[in-house]
Task: structure prediction
Amino acid sequence: MDIVYNDIGKSYNNTRKPDREIFKQLSELLEPEVDKYYLDIGCGTGNYTGLFLKENLNIIGMDPSVLMINEAKNLYPKGVWKTGYAESTGLEKESIHGIVATLTIHHWEDLNLSFNELSRVLKVGGKLVIFTSTPFQMKKYWLNHYFPKMMEKSILQMPSLDAIVNALSETNLRVNQLEKYFVTPDLQDYFLYSGKQRPALYLNPNVRSGISSFSLLSLRQEVEEGLSTLKSDIANGNIQQIIDDYKNDYGDYLFIVLSKDQ
Result:
């Protein structure tokens, strides 16, 4: 996966800007304190890590991609940056007071190993805040209308909430809070469903290059045909009916707050 993200990382930071509202929710759920130590696992180029650093927090940014970590070092030279995996962080036992994992859990190769490792490094009473989407939520994206095979692959790699809960069974981590997240029209971080209310975003190749589903899981012919139909539907106004057909109250993404009780 580090090789995969070394490729994406070449243009990743152009469109994957940190979103202030997402950061606010991450911070409110994590409840960080200045004199404690935190980990951003799967930090990418460190955009959200950087916002925590600006709050004068002690936080380590960790990612498998050497390219992304080097970019993070350039952007935030005062930060602590390490290459590593959720399955193997190399950190000391119970050395971290809290962890954030933003749009990264679907890249963990082994949920059980990952949660065991993150539980190991997390202090008792600490929190792990995950920002992700579930397969159930992703089936409600209108992107399925235009890119069904790509979305099928994306959905298959996304852990369900049940899978996450099952993977926690042999750890000291427990789910204590779930918060739905709905994409807003002013979202600054252009991840997969960022164009929910701005479909023209997907016509921009730079936006697509920063989204792993388009960069890694799509078939060129399907993307070309889907983009052509999408462009036409935007021009003739049909896109609004497609968007309306997929409206729901399930949330587009999900904040999952885990706590280590003992």
In short: Confidence is low (pLDDT under 50) at residues 1-10. The beta strands are 37-41, 58-63, 80-83, 96-102, 122-132, 173-181, 253-260. The first helix runs from residue 2 to 15. The domain at 2-134+154-192+251-260 is CATH 3.40.50.150 (Rossmann fold).
